[in-house]
TrEMBL record:
Residues 203-381 form the Glycosyl transferase family domain. Keywords: Transferase. One of its GO terms (molecular function) is glycosyltransferase activity. Residues 759-780 are annotated as: Disordered. Gene3D superfamilies: Glycogen Phosphorylase B. CDD domains: GT4_mannosyltransferase-like. This is Glycosyl transferase family 1. InterPro entries: 6-hairpin_glycosidase_sf, Glyco_trans_1.
Length: 780
């Protein structure tokens, strides 16, 4: 989906609308869902379920469903309904599929999970796939183990951490996920397995079709394997046949393909031998083939009693049981999870597991009393009305809608953020690092990084009373000054709440940021004495920049030097910092780039746009047009990678910081939006391309809800900002880095707007109110 950015300026502030899709424009487009699971011609219950979802939800005009099928080695067959194939055991296929799904800009990705259908031990390859998906993930857990292995538990918990919504088909499955796997209760929903909607009471018609006469028909269907407990039902037949000599037990379905691969038909043959030994061979009929759904339902209509003597009592879902109940069959079942829930209230009969005696008594009790048999069928049919496919489709559609992000949004840019969020995180020592929710968390103390950002904010906030500005500017400046370790000639970074330093030397990044803040303060602080203080400390400490090695640390120091040169045009050390850093970044870019990868390194990490920004600003100040053009080229490439196909901002996720030539979508952090905005400001200064304004506004709207999860991060009234976006939504904490990133982003965008719209009045932003069509103007 393309996203169009519209900008206008008026006395009430700037309005930015990002249009496209549901809730925007004059028409709605269907919700697009990528469905991940096995799929016909694969013969398994998950494939049948995936096909059912594809057919039922895809038939709705408001949905468009695409299947990406998990395929085993050697599988073949036409797949006309499949958009893509993931070969089960090939890790690269999961990477490729995730990339294609992200490029296709689906509104949601719905994964059918069963341990055996994905590659790796216990199907662990699904985790890497889920990590790469940007769209909201919906999970259906077809099996919820109450006693998982450590690896199985780790896989389930990892998938839960990625999910926006989780579907299970039993209440016990939901309770297990919440209680044992720590899934948030709010995102776990129970939706009963869908079932067909057919008329009631057509046994005679279908018995005639299959030439079964009027004899009592017992039936089990589905893929055959030891867990189905069929031996117990065969052992029950002598007692049943003794009372009802014409009774016939029909076992319909092929042996499970995995079992065939391991041991052939040994299990089925053992059952046949058991029937012969008990003298009931003529009372067992075998339909040894995989039937399509419609023929399977026809076969099921011909039975009187449907039997599921399963030995595996952990089975959370049985599509065959759902079908039988919906068709109005009397059901006799062992107490596995799905049966206990679906057959409650007299819908069917629950019997002792692994007991041929109990099975025989239940079946005979129904066949002995035709009225009871009919009443049981009627109760089943009535219960089945709640699970028929139209009901399932409605519940599934609601599930998807709850998972997807809002589309189409309008936000007003001009409202000035309040500062209460900044003050709340600050005390007489400096600005605290972290919070729990909105409450400062003193356990983590302070850091230089946040205090330099806070000082930079004080330098640019307009209309702040001089006394208040100086009060807080001096607190933050004092922290920076105290952080200097003259013996090591480096800044410290981390300080405990008791004001003891946690280290003698801080990171190179924190040292680079300190030089940046000192340069910016020397250039922009409204108070002349504070500017003089900052220039003095820049002169004292900026020799650090000559030894910085990491590109980002160097870029931070370069930005401070560029600010100094814009004020003190003949400042030799600032010029030297830019010359050294500009040459280093330019050379890195030339040596690291390759086709499709226009970047300074083999990986994208944090604060990526700062490298481009520093090279552009160095080129402007040192009159090196080749640096400017190289920085612009790299920034265009990066901006393209950080723009989703739908048009919203999608920063490089922190989970991918250590991966070469890869980009993962989560977690997304406010600092990345700030860097994109301020780099776009430098780019616009270099070449006046309005595309940079669009990119800056798009990145700013990320704070206000135009993002991969549709969550509002920033509260304009207080100036607070949540700590980012996880696969599940917003990180509810509001630390200093996030608050300051939003605040600094706001003023960068306003400065850029005034550069692009010179007729806009500086006071315009003071009167505007925030407006957001999908959420109220505070946290939502």
């Amino acid at each position: 989906m393309d996203c169009n950015v519209f900008r206008s300026s008026s006395a009430s502030g700037e309005v930015v609308s990002l249009f496209g899709g549901v809730g925007s424009g004059t028409s709605e487009r269907p919700i697009r869902v990528a469905l991940i699971g096995t799929f016909p011609p694969r013969r398994c219950g998950i494939a049948t379920f995936t096909k059912d979802v594809f057919d039922r939800l895809g038939a709705r005009p408001d949905f468009q469903i695409s299947v990406h099928a998990i395929e085993q080695h050697g599988e073949a067959g036409a797949r006309p309904d499949v958009a893509g194939v993931i070969r089960q055991s090939l890790p690269d296929d999961y990477v490729r599929a995730a990339r294609e799904i992200n490029a296709a800009a689906y509104d949601a990705v719905w994964i059918q999970h069963e341990f055996g259908i994905f590659g790796g031990p216990d199907g662990e390859m699904v985790c890497d796939f889920a990590d790469r998906i940007a769209a909201p993930i919906i999970l259906t857990f077809h099996t919820v183990l109450s006693a998982p292995s450590p690896r199985q538990r780790a896989i389930v918990e990892h998938l839960i951490s990625r999910a926006s919504r989780i579907m299970v088909m039993s209440q016990q499955g939901r309770e297990t996920l919440i209680g044992q796997y720590r899934a948030p209760a709010a995102i776990v929903e129970t939706i009963a397995h869908g079932a067909p909607d057919r008329p009631f009471g057509r046994e005679a018609e279908f018995k005639a079709r299959f030439r079964l006469g009027d004899q009592p028909i017992l039936m089990t269907f589905g893929l055959i394997g030891p867990g189905k407990g069929l031996e117990h039902m065969i052992e029950a037949l002598p007692a049943i046949v003794a009372r009802h000599p014409r009774a016939l037990y029909r076992i319909v379905g092929a042996t499970h393909p995995n079992l065939i691969a391991e041991e052939g038909e040994r299990y089925r043959e053992s059952l046949q031998q058991l029937a012969r030994s008990l003298g009931v061979e003529d009372h067992v009929a075998w339909e040894n083939r995989f039937l399509d759904t419609e023929e399977l339902l026809d076969q099921l209509e011909a039975c009187d009693i449907y039997v599921t003597p399963y030995a595996n009592l952990q089975q959370a879902t049985s599509g065959t049981l759902s079908y039988a109940v919906a068709l109005g069959k009397a059901v006799v079942a062992t107490p596995y999870v799905h049966a206990r829930e679906l057959l409650a209230g007299g819908v069917g009969l629950i019997v002792e597991p692994q007991s041929s005696r109990a099975l025989a008594e239940a079946v005979n009790g129904l066949l002995d009393d035709p009225e009871r048999l009919t009443a049981t069928k009627e109760r089943a049919y009535a219960a089945g009305r709640r699970t028929i496919w139209p009901e399932f489709a409605n519940a599934s559609a609601a599930l998807v809608r709850r998972a997807i992000r809002p589309r189409g949004r309008e936000v007003r840019m001009g409202a000035r953020p309040g500062l209460s969020g900044v003050w709340t995180m600050s005390d007489g020592c400096g600005m605290l690092q972290h919070s729990i929710g909105m409450v400062p968390d003193r356990r983590h103390g302070y850091c230089l990084d946040d205090n330099v950002r806070a000082l930079m904010l004080m330098n640019i906030v307009p209309d702040l009373a001089h006394e208040e500005r100086m009060r807080w500017s001096l607190v933050y400046a004092s922290f920076i000054q105290h952080a200097w370790n003259p013996d090591a000639r480096r800044f410290r970074n981390f300080m405990a709440f008791d004001r003891s330093w946690c280290e003698e030397v801080g990171s190179e990044d924190s040292n680079g940021r300190a030089i940046w803040a000192l340069g910016q303060t020397a250039a922009l602080a409204p108070d002349r004495e504070l500017r003089r203080w900052a220039l003095r400390w820049f002169d004292e400490t900026s020799t650090i920049a000559e030894t910085l090695r990491p590109p980002r640390s160097t870029a931070f120091a370069m930005l401070g030097a560029a600010a100094v040169l814009r004020t003190v045009h003949d400042h030799l050390r600032a010029a030297h910092i830019l010359d050294r850093g500009g040459a280093m970044l330019f050379d890195l870019l030339q040596h690291s780039r390759r086709p499709g990868w226009t970047w300074f390194e083999a990986r994208l990490a944090y604060d990526n746009p700062r490298l481009c920004q520093a090279l552009i600003e160095a080129g402007l100040e040192r009159r090196r047009p080749e640096w400017v053009e190289a920085g612009l080229e790299a920034l265009r490439w990066l901006a393209d990678r950080q723009t989703a196909r739908e048009g919203h901002f999608r920063p490089v996720g922190s989970e991918g910081f250590g991966s070469d030539y890869e980009q993962l979508p989560f977690d997304q952090q406010p600092l990345e939006a700030q860097a994109a905005i301020e780099a776009a400001c430098a780019a616009f200064e270099a070449n006046d391309d309005p595309a940079w304004i669009d990119h800056a506004l798009t990145a700013y709207c990320w704070y206000l809800g135009v993002n991969d999860r549709g969550v509002v991060l920033a509260d304009v009234a207080s100036g607070r900002c949540r700590d980012g976006i996880t696969p599940r939504g917003a990180n509810e904490n509001m630390g200093a880095e996030s608050i300051l990133a939003f605040q600094l982003s706001h003023y960068a965008v306003l400065t850029l707007n005034r550069s692009a719209l010179p007729d806009a009045r500086p006071e315009d932003d003071a009167e505007a109110e925030p407006r957001d069509t999908a959420h109220p103007p505070a946290f939502a």
